[in-house]
Amino acid sequence: MATGYTAIVTEKPDLTLGEFVWRCARGFGAFVDQREDGLDAKPRMEEKPSDWNAKRLAEARRELDRLNRITPKEAEAAAVAAYEAEVSARAKRAESIAAKNAAYMRMRDLVSAWEPPTAHHMGLRRFMLEQIDESLRFDCGGWEQAEPKRLTAQEWLDGAVDRAFKDIEYHAAGDAKERARVRGSNQWKRALAKCLPLSRKPKARRA
Q1: Number of domains in the chain
Q2: Could you say which DSSP state residue 141 is in?
Q3: What is the domain extent for residue 126?
Q4: Who has the most CB within 10 Å: 59, 97, 156, 176?
């Protein structure tokens, strides 16, 4: 049975090796940026690196610069704000879990009290209870979170600086990896194009 890549072999009797090679090359990682394009779309020979890590790297460097210039008063205010945000988030999570737990338990009680019409339906009730119990464990179990700790201004600042350094390291590595990937991809494409050009201009006819 023909695939999306091989169908053209029988559909186009004069198909050249180059045409088939380039069609199949679209299935390789070098053309990952065109995975959503149709097989007949013209291959893009030069891929540009994603700037996602580069932008995050710039943000992390700006944050580190900001932290290096922060005043003790600003650090104290940031520590208080971070603590209050953690307290609020913990309360909201507890409220959400309590609501989910109540809803699951309500339905569990209804299912437990339900009398299936025949013995053949007992498996359905058992399955329903298993699904609810699994959801209870996943959504409502093991969520307990320690009480937020109120950090001093220096403790908060040390943690923020450490996170900024880690972000810089992580995104610098990610950006370098992305650039290396694209460089290798473009080299792969160029090597293939040198071996089997994507298209040739027709030779001029002699008079």
Answers
A1: 1
A2: S
A3: 68-176
A4: 156
